[in-house]
Design brief:
Number of strands of chain A: 7
Oligomer: heterodimer
Largest interface: A-B, 22 and 22 residues
Distance between the termini of chain A: 32 Å
Order of helices and strands of chain B: EHEHEHEHEH
Structural class of chain A: alpha+beta
Helix content of chain A: 25-40%
Number of strands of chain B: 5
Strand content of chain B: 15-25%
Number of helices of chain A: 3
Shape of chain A: globular
Radius of gyration of chain B: 13 Å
Largest sheet of chain A: 7 strands, antiparallel
Number of helices of chain B: 5
Shape of chain B: globular
Strand order of the largest sheet of chain B: 2-1-3-4-5
Helix content of chain B: 40-55%
Structural class of chain B: alpha/beta
Chain lengths: 131, 128
C-alpha cells in the first residue's frame, strides 16, 4: 500500500526516538495488542505516502494514518491464525504523541518486537499476547 | 468514456481517502466520489442518487458492511451496481458471507493499486 519495501534496521536505534505510537488491542480468543512506533518525521512520511496531498494539508491525519496502518497489521496478524480469525476482535486504533514516555503492559505476556528500516529510520512493530 | 460515480463506505476517513487515491492510481475512470462512514449513511446516499460502483468496509459501527449489503438488495436503483468489499477481515467465513449477500468482489487491506485494478476494472469495464 505504501509501495515501500521494509528491511531489518541495520544500525543502533537506542538513541532514536519514537514519538508516535499507534496501538490496536486484540480481544476474544486472543488477547493482547499490536503497536507501531516511529518518530514524528517518519510518521509524516508514512502519512504522505498513504494520503499524498491530504496529509500535508491536514496534519491531524498523520496520527490517523499511523493508526490505520496499525489496524491493518493487526487485522492481517489475526487473519493468519485461522483458528482465531473469527473469534478475535480488534479495538479502535489509539495513537499517542509525545516524548520520554514508556509503554508498559501488565499480566504475563509474550512479546515480539521487530525494528524495520523505513527510508533509513527505525519503525518498531510489536505484538504482545496475554498468556 | 463515462467517469464513474463512486460511493466509498468506511468508518475511517483515512481509509476512504486511501481507497479513492488507489482507484485513481489504478487508472479507474473516477468522477464524483461520495463517502459514508457506515452502512446506514451509505443506504441513505444510495436512496438519494445512483452510483456506478460501491466500495465498502465490513466492520463499521451503526450498520456493518454485511447488513448494508442485505439492505441494498431491496433498493431497486442499486440493482446491478457492483459492490466490492475492502476490509482487514480476511477470514474465509466473512468472504463467503459477503459474496453470498451480493458482494461482487473482495479486497483485503493492505492493497496496491494493481490489486485494485485487477479486482475492479473487470466489474466496471475500464482501465485496460
Amino acid at each position: 500500500m505504501l509501495g515501500v519495501e521494509l528491511q531489518a534496521f541495520p544500525g543502533s536505534f537506542e538513541d532514536r526516538h519514537g514519538e508516535q505510537t499507534a496501538i490496536v488491542g486484540l480481544a476474544g480468543a486472543l488477547c493482547g495488542m499490536v503497536a507501531i512506533r516511529c518518530s514524528s518525521p517518519t510518521a509524516e512520511k508514512i502519512a504522505a505516502l498513504m494520503l499524498a496531498a491530504d496529509a500535508a494539508s491536514n496534519p491531524s491525519m498523520i496520527g490517523d494514518a499511523l493508526g490505520e496502518l496499525c489496524n491493518m497489521v493487526a487485522g492481517n496478524f489475526k487473519s493468519k491464525v485461522s483458528t482465531i480469525a473469527d473469534h478475535c476482535m480488534l479495538s479502535m486504533p489509539t495513537v499517542i504523541w509525545g516524548e520520554h514516555y514508556v509503554m508498559q503492559t501488565f499480566q504475563s505476556h509474550e512479546a515480539f518486537e521487530v525494528v524495520l528500516s523505513f527510508e533509513g529510520e527505525p519503525v518498531w512493530f510489536s505484538i504482545v499476547i496475554q498468556t | 468514456m463515462k467517469k464513474l460515480r463512486v460511493l466509498i463506505v468506511d468508518d475511517s476517513s483515512v481509509m476512504r481517502k486511501i481507497v479513492e487515491r488507489s482507484l485513481r492510481q489504478a487508472g479507474i475512470e473516477v468522477g464524483e466520489v461520495l463517502e459514508a462512514s457506515n452502512g446506514a449513511e451509505a443506504l441513505a446516499e444510495v436512496q438519494k442518487s445512483a452510483f456506478d460502483l460501491i466500495l465498502s468496509d465490513i466492520n463499521m459501527p451503526a450498520m456493518d458492511g454485511l447488513e448494508f449489503l442485505r439492505n441494498l438488495s431491496n433498493i431497486e436503483s442499486a440493482k446491478g451496481v457492483p459492490v466490492v468489499m475492502i476490509t482487514t477481515e480476511g477470514s474465509e467465513a466473512r468472504v463467503v458471507e459477503a459474496l453470498s449477500v451480493g458482494a461482487r468482489g473482495y479486497i483485503r487491506k493492505p492493497f496496491t493499486p494493481e490489486q485494485v485494478k485487477e479486482r475492479i476494472a473487470p466489474l466496471v469495464g475500464g482501465a485496460d
